[in-house]
Structure formats: C-alpha cells, structure tokens
Design goal:
Blueprint (H helix, E strand, L loop, with lengths): L5 H10 L12 H9 L6 E5 L2 E4 H16 L19 H20 L21 H11 L3 E2 L4 E2 H15 L16 E4 L6 H12 L3 E4 L2 H5 L1 H11 L3 E5 H5 L14 E5 L7 H8 L4 E7 L6 E6 L7 E2 L3 E6 L12 E7 L13 E3 L6 E11 L5 E3 L18
Parallel strand pairs: 1-6, 5-6, 5-7, 7-8, 8-9
Antiparallel strand pairs: 1-2, 3-4, 9-10, 10-11, 12-13, 13-15, 14-15, 15-16
Helix pairs in contact: 2-7, 3-4, 6-7
Length: 396
C-alpha cells in the first residue's frame, strides 16, 4: 500500500469523508408541534387495511404519556386499539409506530412524575418540587430514545434531512397547519430507525406515511399496486424491491415525484426503468446502515452506485490497522456523524473512537473505495452480504 501525500490524507480524512456541517436543525419538539397542528381528520399512517388519523395517533400518544407518568386518564379511552396485535402484523406495525412516537414525544416533552421521586437537588426526597427537579436533571444530558438507541438531536437531524429531500420537487412551500398532499411510502420494517425518521418527517409536514407490509416488500407486483392505490408521491425502498419492476408489464405510476433507492449497488437498468414508469420523477441513490438514523450518503441514480456523505455524516475507508486507504484501493467502510446510534452491548465491538477526528465510528461490514474525484463506491458483494449486520433496536 503506497504512502499518502498530505493533500490525499486531508481529502480522505476530512474533505471527502465529511458531509457539510449541519445548520438550522429543528428540535424534535418543534417537529412534533408541527404535526399536532395538522387537522385531526387527516390520515397520518397506513399499513395494509389499517389507518390512523392524526387525531387517533396523538390520542394514543397522549394516553401512553399519561400512563407512563402514572396519572389516571381523564380523556376518552382509545377503544380503537386492536385487541389481537400478535395475530395482525399490520395493526401491530401501526401500534408499534404509535408507541414509538409516544416514546420520542416523552423524551422531548417530559411530564413531571405523579408520585414523589428521589431528588438530586437540595429538596427532601418527597418534596413537591421533586418532579420539577427530575425535569431539570433530564435536561442536563442529551435525551435518548432507548428503543432506537438514538439521541433526540440525531433523530431530529435525520428527520429534517428527509423533509428536505422530499421538498426538492415542490413548486412552493406549503402552510404546515393545513398539511401536505404528500404521500410518502416506506418499504422497510416499522421497528427500525428508518421508519422513525420517515414518520417524523412525514408528520411534521402534515403528510401521510404508508408502510409497505413484509409481503408487499417481497412482491414487486404488490408493491406497484400499493404505490398506485395510495397515489404515493415519494417512495423509499431498497434496490431489490424496485428492481423487481423489470419483470412486470411496465406499470404506470405517474404520481411518484421522487424515488429514494437504498443499497450498496445499483443495477444499470434501474434508472431508465423508474423514469419510464414515473416520467416526471427524480431519483437518487442512497446508503443506509442499521447503526445510523436515516440516510448516511447519497449519489445519483445512474447505475454507478457512487455516493457522498450527506450533511452531518462522516464516512472513512480504512485498512485493518485503521489507516487511510488510497483512492482506488479497497478497504473497510466506517460510518460516524450526527445521527450515529448509541452503542448497544451486543454490537460494542463494532464501535470505536475515530482515529482522525473527535467522535465515534462504527464498522459497517461493507467494503469500498474512493474514486479519484471523491466518490465512494462499494465493493461487489454476494447478495447475502447486503444486510450483514442488524441492531435489535428494541433490545437497545
């Protein structure tokens, strides 16, 4: 392996590795307040035959928050909750997203405890101000969403980025109080960071989030029918899910304005295929990792699979000794940045201190190289290696 010049080292460890700095990232509480102003009758979430309006969704969030704080519920009960969630995965997905939003809301907008709690200040253990002191202690550290192993600032950065992506084909801004006509379709599991990010981005804009079921994600024809039936305007899906469109009679999906295709390799046929079925759409290629909230890097959907880090993200290509790898040479891909997850115990070995800057990195399990002009391209991998590592966010 050849020695690197000072200029090359600067490019590999700084210029190419870093997305631009984040700016004007809203707080999670601001995103939630935008969602609360959307008319209650507007549809918020769809999965299979089940739907939740904004009113129903935030009723559940309020009920969960009150129950968690130990208060008795004084409002209407949420009688529309499915009774047999285990037997109905679609209902379970919506219920899971509602509980996840409640968890995020509780971290962003904590309620004082209903019962006396131990006070870290100068008050007695059972003082009336102990609840307020708990809130003060809460604000001293960065709040974290345990199920996702993500801090609120990381989640906010990822959600705001997703909002910017979907807005890039709008003719004008819309009043969020009236909501958006957008229908965002996510072909991914409901219990990961991607779903949480998409949910927050959609709700903050007053849009509808459609979650494809496992069967729909595995069947290109079913996914195509779902996109058409819901008039989806924005689709986020893996390469494998969309590549199956090539085996179908060309579907017409004119409502789609943007495709976000995720993966590590892009079939050459895919860009032309998506343009043919949605002529007025734009498309982009993106890389996601279980250890990072939302998209970490993006590039053009041109069949090359080339990407660059998005704002707030950091990508390094290192060898076994954690040394920088020269352009054109293959190494291990490491990921860090603003939306990096916390370190769950079972995956702690994959996290390490960044050897070239302050912060932490995670070894993604992918291999790749930098091109001479600063694009990251992943090495060809066997199909089974496409999702090599997954973090159990529920356990985290």
């Amino acid at each position: 392996m050849r020695d690197l010049s000072t200029v090359e080292r600067h490019r590999l460890a700084d210029e190419w590795a870093n997305g631009v700095e984040l700016y004007d990232v809203p707080a999670i509480g601001c995103l939630i307040q935008c969602a609360r102003r959307v008319p209650a009758i507007r549809t918020a979430l769809i999965c299979g035959s089940h739907t939740l309006t904004y009113g129903q969704l935030f009723d559940r969030v309020a009920a969960d928050a009150i129950a968690e704080a130990g208060f008795a519920s004084v409002g209407p009960a949420c009688d529309d909750r499915p009774a047999a969630l285990d037997a109905d995965p679609e209902a379970a997905a919506l219920e899971g997203l509602a509980r996840l939003l409640a968890e995020i809301t509780a971290a962003a907008e904590p309620l004082p405890a209903a019962r006396p709690v131990a006070c870290a200040g100068s008050h007695p253990d059972t003082c009336a101000q102990s609840g307020d002191c708990a809130l003060i202690r809460h604000d001293l550290a960065e709040p974290t969403v345990p199920r996702l192993a993500l801090t609120l600032s990381a989640l906010a950065a990822a959600a705001d980025d997703r909002r910017g992506v979907v807005a890039d084909t709008r003719a004008c801004r819309v009043d969020r109080a009236f909501g958006s006509a957008d229908v965002r379709l996510l072909a991914a599991r409901w219990d990961g960071a991607d779903a949480a990010v998409e949910m927050l981005a959609a709700l903050a804009d007053g849009a509808t989030l459609v979650l494809a079921t496992e069967a729909q994600r595995a069947d290109a024809a079913a996914l195509s029918e779902l996109i058409a039936a819901t008039s989806a305007t924005h689709v986020l899906a893996e390469v494998a899910a969309l590549a199956g469109f090539a085996d179908l009679p060309a579907p017409a999906l004119p409502t789609v304005r943007r495709w976000d295709v995720t993966g590590t390799a892009c079939p050459a046929i895919l860009p032309g295929l998506l343009r043919a079925i949605a002529p007025d759409s734009v498309a982009g290629f993106a890389y996601t990792a279980p250890e990072y909230a939302g998209v970490a890097a993006r590039g053009p959907l041109d069949g090359s699979g080339r990407i660059r880090p998005i704002p707030g993200a950091r990508v390094l290509v290192l060898d076994a000794e954690l040394c920088l790898v020269a352009p054109g040479e293959t190494g291990d891909v490491y990921l860090g940045g603003a939306a990096l997850a916390a370190e769950p115990a079972e995956a702690a070995a994959d996290f390490l201190a960044d050897p070239y800057a302050a912060g932490r990195l995670v070894k993604t399990g992918e291999r790749g190289h930098w091109t001479a002009d600063g694009w990251l391209v992943f090495a060809a991998a066997a199909p089974a290696a496409a999702s090599a590592t997954e973090i159990d966010y529920a356990a985290a």
